[in-house]
Input
Amino acid sequence: MASKEAGRGADREGVEAGRYQCGRDEDGWTIIFSATFANVDRVCHRVAGFLREQGLAPLFAVELGTREILNNAVVHGCGGDSNKTVRFRIFLRDGNLYLQSSDEGKGYLPREPEPGEEDVLKESGYGLAILRRYFDAVSFNASGNEITLVLKNFMSSCSGSVRGVPDAESGATRSGRDNDE
Output
């Protein structure tokens, strides 16, 4: 990695945030951190910086996706154990934006709910449906402990308007999915 930042820090309650290492390469950032919500906040701050480096304002869909996959890694993958590690990567390749998270958990392989199986009154379990709405691709590795989110044609779609924000000239909204326009 071309540059590296490491450190320890405390979250808002004074609890040690633990390991946090950030490295830059030719197309993005890799961040390896202890499974704490304080570190999730630090990663989201780094993601906003990455977008600014690309000449973009921080985008709702990108922060939403980052928080969702990292919170799931902390809670479900690492079981809230701050001694476990989460690895996050954000990078641009061929105009597409990738968010990737992996953890030390046993993995999760989603399945589509059977018709009528949805429980609209439940308080959790909507993350994948939300991610699929905002991202062009959502995929897992074979063991289910790594998720990748993709915004296709990210750089070209952001050149005129930011996703999810109406374009000043045309009034059209860019939602994050090419087929929703």
Remarks:
- The domain at 3-109+123-164 is CATH 3.30.565.10 (Heat Shock Protein 90).
- Residues 7-15, 160-181 have pLDDT under 50 and may be disordered.
- The first strand starts at residue 3 and ends at 7.
